[in-house]
Amino acid sequence: MAAMTDKTKGGFEPGSFLFNYRQISTESYWHHAHRGIEMLYIYEGHGEIRVDNRTYPIGNDSLVWFQPYQVHRVAVPFEPGRSYIRTNLTLDPAYLEPYLAPFPGLGRFFRHLWKGNLREPFVPSARDTPIRDLLERIHAALNDSSPGRDEDVGLLLLNLIRQLREHPFRDEADAAAGAAPMNRARSHAERITEWLDLHYKRPFKLEELAESLHLSPYHVSHVFKKSAGMTLSEYLIRRRVREACALLANTSKSVQEIASEVGGLSTSYFCQMFRKAKGLSPEQYRQSIR
C-alpha cells in the first residue's frame, strides 16, 4: 500500500496520499503546481485562485480541483479578524487504482477529473454536500492505528469521489458518462486522438495524419473539432505542454532539450507556447513544483 500521512512533510512522492486537515493561517500566497491531483476545500477565507490563466473568487466552502502539473496561484490577503481555514488532499492518481477497479463507472469519472478537459475546476460553494463530513472522517481514519486503517481510508476516498460525482461535479460526471458511447464521429475522433498522442513528439503534418486514417484532411479537422471542442493545433499544444510539465518537474533536461523532445520545436517558440498556456516561463514553472 502506498504511503500516506495526515500532514504534508517534504515533497510529494509517487504513489503517495497527503492530507492536511483544517490548516489555519491569517493569509496565504502560493504559486505552484503538483505532480499529483489536489483537492482544496476552503472552510473560511476570501481571496482568489488563478488556475491556468483563469481567476476565481473564493469564499467560505469553496472547492477547487487541480489536475497534475496544473499551475495555480492562491491569494488570500490578510484581513483583521479573519482566518483562512482549509483542507488539502493531494494524491498520486495511481493510489486509487486498486480501489476503483471493481467500479468502471466511477473509475471513468475519476479519470476524467484526473486528465480530462474539465469545464470548471472551481465550485463556489460545496456547503450543502457530504464533502465536509467525509473530510472529517478521512482525518479520523488517518489517526486510527488499527490494522484496517489503509482499507478504511481507501473506501472513504472512493466515497469522496462518488460524492464529487453526485454533487459539485455532476456536470463533469455527465461529460464523462457521455464519452462512453462510440458513434461513428466519436470513433474517428478517438483514432485521431490516439494518433496525436503517439506522434506529438514529431513535427505535425495534417496530411500524414489524414492518410494514416484514410480520411481527407478537411474531414479530420472537422470531425475532431466537432467531437473534442478544440482544433487539432490546440490539442497538440495541450499535449505538448503537459509532457513538458512532466519533464520540467521530473528531469534536469534543459528547456532547449525539452522543446526538441515535445515536437522538434525551437526554444523561442516553445517558451512562447508554454507561457501562453501556463502563465509563466518553463524555468519559473520548474521552480514552482512542490
UniProtKB/TrEMBL annotation:
PANTHER family found in the cross-reference section: ARAC-FAMILY TRANSCRIPTIONAL REGULATOR, HTH-TYPE TRANSCRIPTIONAL REGULATOR EXSA
Keywords for this protein: DNA-binding, Transcription, Transcription regulation
CDD domains (alphabetical): cupin_RmlC-like
A Pfam family this chain is assigned to: HTH_18
Cross-referenced SMART domains: HTH_ARAC
Protein name: Helix-turn-helix transcriptional regulator
InterPro entries: AraC-bd, Homeodomain-like_sf, HTH-like, HTH_AraC, RmlC-like_jellyroll, Tscrpt_reg_AraC-type_HTH
Any one GO MF annotation of this record: DNA-binding transcription factor activity
